[in-house]
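Tokens as discussed.
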């Protein structure tokens, strides 16, 4: 199995190496606006702020440990669950999905000139994050009380596939990043995915439904903010470097 995987990876790297390197309007645009990606990912902070605002109006009383994130976007209203600001939350899901996909598209430019193996790893990792963004959009369109199976599929892509993309990036582009960031990307995603599996199996380890889901979902969004700041800082430091004398 290991030999097959190694051969398959080698084959994919060769295909990546053989890709024609031509400058397109998209690559020119991304290269010209390299701060867009970090700014877009940094805006993920609003996802957390919206949750706080929506939870304040939730009735009878929202529990951050007991209630799931999706409860904030539930469009029904009854004596045990009512989210008057559900439209805010569903828009936040949509916004997060857009942020994940658009930011991935921009930040991939950072690694487009790397060696073929690192470029391929970046392509896989950021593609997974973009798919995760698509999943978050599905969650926004199908709240938990509408079409449950679509909501679950969206959550799987939004949390599971997106988090797996972060893990893949930690091994593919590790030489380009600080060691602390790399180890965080290697240790936290598996734990988040494990928490997601337990959440799906309704095993909460005494933490509560909402707490287990947040252990699965929040690391991904926090990473978007941290990685966006990291890329922005690297560009800022490069811009401040003195131009060598001719």
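Sequence:
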């Amino acid at each position: 199995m290991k030999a097959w995987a190694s051969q398959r990876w080698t084959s994919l790297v060769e295909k990546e190496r053989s890709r024609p390197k031509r400058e397109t309007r998209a690559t020119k645009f991304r290269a010209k606006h390299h701060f867009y990606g970090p700014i877009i990912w940094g805006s993920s902070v609003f996802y957390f702020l919206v949750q706080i605002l929506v939870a304040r109006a939730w009735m009878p009383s929202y529990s951050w440990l007991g209630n799931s994130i999706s409860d904030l976007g539930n469009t029904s209203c009854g004596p045990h669950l009512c989210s008057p600001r559900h439209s805010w939350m569903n828009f936040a899901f949509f916004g997060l999905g857009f942020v994940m996909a658009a930011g991935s598209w921009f930040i991939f430019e950072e690694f487009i000139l790397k060696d073929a193996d690192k470029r391929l790893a970046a392509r896989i990792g950021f593609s997974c994050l973009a798919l995760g963004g698509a999943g978050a959009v599905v969650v926004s369109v199908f709240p938990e009380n509408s079409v449950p199976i679509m909501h679950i599929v969206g959550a799987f892509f939004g949390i599971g596939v997106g988090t797996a993309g972060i893990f893949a990036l930690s091994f593919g582009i590790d030489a380009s990043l600080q060691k602390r960031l790399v180890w965080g990307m290697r240790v936290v995603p598996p734990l988040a995915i494990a928490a997601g599996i337990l959440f799906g199996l309704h095993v909460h380890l005494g933490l509560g439904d909402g707490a287990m889901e947040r252990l699965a979902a929040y690391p991904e969004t926090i990473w978007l903010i941290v990685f966006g700041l990291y890329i922005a800082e690297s560009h800022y430091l490069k811009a401040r470097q003195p131009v060598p004398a001719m």
